């Protein structure tokens, strides 16, 4: 048979793909056959009720947790076969809990983001320092550059960790509740930053709780419910009254918001008898 040779790599615009991933913790299925394709130039929101498996899925995507079933591929290569240092050149993960107990300044923490790019045991150079300082500015964290991270507020620390991820210059950026500890202005700043990164070609996945932020700032929303994907697609198709009732057990109306030109979810009441009651 003639024709093009079979393709083993991933399409260029799908750098990270999780295929039918399953995770079992303490004998309990936490993720069941979840398939997620992370796309270049797109901000994808990962939403779902507490305990749905969002952080677990993000750890699997980041190569930090090995799934019991399925696999995760970066540019077609299983992440489990990549050394962490190699993976970290392409992929950055900002965890939900950013508490650190060592006495580093913010700038020193952000400079750690450069380490995957350095030759082994090589010191950081002026270019790394320039990138770290730019990352601190881009994240809006430059005011605390010289302050020890142990003395920062939760929100300030969150911005420093976002700066560290930016300094890594990843093609895939995974963030677990990146705006959870931030004030209104910093929330908007970070969400706009994610959009700008996507515009410049980064593939972004962010766990968000605020469905209206997901609707406004994300191209795609993946809705996790009881360890499976209930919906995955553009906000108008995923954040429906029906899906939200099933996943959260909340009655809502979804309106078009003329100010943000995106769907707006208005919670009405708890819907007894549906939602995640595990
Ligand atoms: P989410 O981020 O959506 O709130 P998680 O992914 O953190 O949810 O957790 C999914 C489920 O797995 C939860 O029910 C949680 O209690 C459970 N889980 C996660 N990690 C562990 C662990 N180390 N030990 C026991 N249960 C865990
Ligand atoms: Mg979580």
From TrEMBL:
Pfam families recorded for this chain? ABC_tran
Q: Which domain of life is it from?
A: Bacteria
The GO terms this record gives for MF are: ATP binding
Q: Which InterPro entries match?
A: AAA+_ATPase (IPR003593), ABC_transporter-like_ATP-bd (IPR003439), P-loop_NTPase (IPR027417)
In this chain the ABC transporter domain maps to 16-251
Q: Which UniProt keywords apply?
A: ATP-binding, Nucleotide-binding, Translocase, Transport
- PANTHER family linked: HEMIN IMPORT ATP-BINDING PROTEIN HMUV
Protein's recorded name: Iron complex transport system ATP-binding protein
Q: Please tell me the species this chain comes from.
A: Actinoalloteichus caeruleus DSM 43889
């Amino acid at each position: 048979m003639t024709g093009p040779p079979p393709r083993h790599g991933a399409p260029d615009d799908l750098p990270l793909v999780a295929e039918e991933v399953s995770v079992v913790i303490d004998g309990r299925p936490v993720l069941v056959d979840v398939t997620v394709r992370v796309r270049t130039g797109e901000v994808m929101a990962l939403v779902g009720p507490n305990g749905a498996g969002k952080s677990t899925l993000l750890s699997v995507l980041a190569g930090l947790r090995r799934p019991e079933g399925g696999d995760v591929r970066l540019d077609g290569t299983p992440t489990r076969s990549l050394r962490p240092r190699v993976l970290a050149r392409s992929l950055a993960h900002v965890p939900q809990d950013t508490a650190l107990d060592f006495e580093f300044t913010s700038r020193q923490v952000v400079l750690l983001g450069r380490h995957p790019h350095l030759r082994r045991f090589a010191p950081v150079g002026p270019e790394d320092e320039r990138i770290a300082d730019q990352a601190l500015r881009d994240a809006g964290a430059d005011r605390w550059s010289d302050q020890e991270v142990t003395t920062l507020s939760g929100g300030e620390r969150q911005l420093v960790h976002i700066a560290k991820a930016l300094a890594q210059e990843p093609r895939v950026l995974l963030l677990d509740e990146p705006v959870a500890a931030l004030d209104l202005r910093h929330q908007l700043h970070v969400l706009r930053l994610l959009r700008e990164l996507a515009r410049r070609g980064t593939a972004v996945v962010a766990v968000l709780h605020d469905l209206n932020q997901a609707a406004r700032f994300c191209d795609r929303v993946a809705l996790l419910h009881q360890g499976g994907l209930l919906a995955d697609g553009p906000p108008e198709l995923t954040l429906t009254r029906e899906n939200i009732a099933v996943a959260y057990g909340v009655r809502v109306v979804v309106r078009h918001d003329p100010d943000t030109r995106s769907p707006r979810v208005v919670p009405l009441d708890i819907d007894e008898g549906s939602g995640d009651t595990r």
